[in-house]
Every structure is written in C-alpha cells, then in structure tokens.
Amino acid sequence: MKPMLALLSLLALPVMAAEPTLYGRYENIALPELGETLKAKMDTGAYTASLPAKDIERFTRDGDDWVRFRLATKDADGKVYEHKVSRISKIKNRADEEEEGDARGRSRRAVVDREM
Q: Tell me, what's the pLDDT at 98?
C-alpha cells in the first residue's frame, strides 16, 4: 500500500501550481512593433494597456478608422505612428484629468491592437 501512495503523490506533483511570477509596480515593457522599450505602470484590473500619447488625430483610410500620434514619453524621439483602430474604449477620467468627455466623466479613446 505504501508504494501505491508514493506513486500517487508523485503523480500529483505536476498538478501543483508553479511559483508565481512577481512583478513590481513599474516594469519595462518591449513594444517591438514600435521599436520601443518603455517603463509601464502595472494595472491588474485592466484588459488593455495605455501608452502616453500626444498630437492624437483620428482619420479614415480605405474606409477604416485609423489614429496618428506621437509618444509622450521622456525619451520619445518625435516619430509619428499610424495604426488602425480596433475599437473605441470609454475610459473613466480621474479627477486631475482635463479631457473632453461625456457628462458622466468618461472620455473616448482609440484602441489599437498590439500586433499592428
């Protein structure tokens, strides 16, 4: 009976959870599509990640919605990026944000897919 118990306990080992990965509040993320590595703040409650952008302009190309922007990071080189918009997200504004939005304190932001 003891050899059978040992066998069962060995079979259970692969099912055990692996050691979790520990992340800090800020992590460097690589964006090969943009050729950039940026410092990013982790947000465990978000399904998308945000890039600080400026000079944001939405436009239409071949019947699709696109967005043109520059990165608004400390080391940004001023390069202009253009990407197809996958959807528009409604974002709840923080109290210190001054952005055009609807009456409920929400703004609309373009979302682009990571594989651009």
A: 52
